[in-house]
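Input structure tokens:
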């Protein structure tokens, strides 16, 4: 004990008193809040149309923005998505429940959080978007639909339970969920917050379309980065205004608001989240239009789609996609990529004779690629048992490699071809 006292411990555990309950915990409904929540009026001034929705669980700041479906976001209209069917994506995202749904049944969801991971990470803003009939309209034609973008904002941590309750009521009215990287981040985070608040969660039960994996499968070969901000610039033709704030700064801006009550920097956060929601709608339109038609806007994307179809075991669809791309006006390099994919597909399907024709087409039109020559040499040596023909294709490959710049990889390819030639010469003799 004396040693503990020398270290500064002057009371034992039994003598310590728990702090009294925080004022917020015992705050009756409707009572004024303290700290940043005194900026309630400032929030409503900053974001006209925003309101605080009160309930038995407390209050939460909510703002709605309504867009006509002919609104253009970058190069696309919001209505473009309503011309596609979720069922087109069912085999790609492996979600058979999409067959019975319409995009009007879905809720788009995106969060702004206090961090990237950990039990203490909080979604202080939840953005959602959904299509609904225009007020007063009886039909569900595109012209009568609007897109509602709704944002829930935590004025402090005490608003979380109220926000989750309101979000759940909206989820209950929707049959599916669309996110961007939500399967790995947004949905697990929110599901955990429901758990922490001892509330039931339906997030994991809904059919879920995460747009990030399809975007990577379709566009990464051509565009490289498939971050949403990058896709906006390179695919959707969108440049955000100066009102936007970088996503990396958003947690710090929220903490600043909690410390000071100053709402001045929050407008950029609301704008950032709103743009994310609109971009998800138009990105979904781009993706599903191409999945539905098995036809992409760019030849490289077409080849990527065919590869995706082949990986899913959709061989007939992949072949049709590739043959459709070959009928177009392709750059020479892209043309060869499509032919290689087609030959590999035919070979895997046991249609070697057709694959041989494609390999020969590649070999006769290529001046610096020996892959098709090697495939033909293998075919004639091991399938046709024609060593002479296999040797001829090997010699042609060696002649091409002989013109290459000498590199370690060139030496390796040359050595492998020379070894194959020696073996074929022995077979002939």
């Amino acid at each position: 004990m004396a040693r503990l006292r020398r270290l500064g411990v002057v009371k034992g555990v039994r003598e310590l008193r728990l702090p009294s309950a925080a004022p917020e915990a015992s705050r009756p409904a409707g009572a004024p809040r303290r700290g940043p929540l005194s900026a309630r009026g400032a929030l409503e001034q900053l974001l006209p149309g925003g309101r605080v929705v009160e309930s038995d669980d407390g209050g939460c700041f909510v703002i709605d923005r309504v867009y006509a479906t002919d609104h253009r976001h970058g190069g696309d209209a919001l209505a473009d998505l309503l011309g596609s069917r979720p069922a087109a994506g069912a085999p790609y995202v492996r979600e058979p429940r999409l067959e019975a749904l319409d995009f009007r049944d879905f809720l788009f969801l995106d969060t702004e959080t206090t961090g990237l991971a950990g039990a203490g990470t909080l979604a202080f803003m939840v953005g959602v978007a959904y299509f609904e009939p225009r007020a007063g309209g009886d039909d569900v034609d595109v012209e009568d639909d609007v897109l509602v973008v709704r944002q829930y904002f935590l004025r402090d941590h005490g608003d979380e339970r109220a926000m989750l309750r309101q979000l759940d009521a909206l989820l209950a009215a929707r049959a599916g969920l669309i996110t961007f990287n939500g399967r790995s981040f947004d949905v697990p985070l929110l599901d955990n917050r429901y758990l922490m608040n001892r509330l039931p969660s339906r997030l994991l039960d809904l059919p879920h379309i995460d747009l990030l994996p399809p975007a990577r499968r379709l566009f990464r070969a051509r565009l490289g980065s498939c971050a949403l901000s990058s896709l906006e610039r390179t695919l959707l033709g969108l440049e955000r205004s100066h009102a936007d704030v970088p996503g990396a700064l958003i947690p710090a801006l929220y903490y600043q608001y909690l410390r000071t009550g100053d709402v001045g920097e929050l407008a950029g956060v609301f704008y950032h989240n709103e743009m994310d929601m609109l971009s998800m709608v138009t990105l979904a339109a781009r993706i599903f239009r191409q999945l539905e038609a098995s036809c992409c806007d760019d030849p490289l994307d077409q080849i990527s789609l065919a590869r995706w179809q082949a990986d899913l075991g959709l061989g007939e669809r992949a072949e049709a996609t590739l043959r459709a791309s070959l009928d177009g006006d392709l750059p020479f390099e892209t043309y060869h990529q499509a032919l290689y994919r087609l030959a590999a597909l035919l070979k895997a399907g046991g249609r070697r004779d057709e694959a041989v024709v494609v390999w020969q087409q590649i070999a006769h039109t290529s001046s610096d690629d020996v892959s098709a020559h090697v495939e033909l040499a293998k075919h004639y040596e091991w399938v046709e048992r024609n060593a002479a023909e296999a040797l001829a294709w090997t010699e042609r490959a060696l002649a091409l490699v002989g013109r290459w710049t000498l590199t370690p990889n060139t030496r390796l390819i040359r050595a492998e071809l020379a070894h194959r030639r020696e073996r074929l010469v022995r077979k002939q003799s």
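The CA atoms of residues 35 and 293 lie 55 Å apart. The first strand starts at residue 51 and ends at 55.
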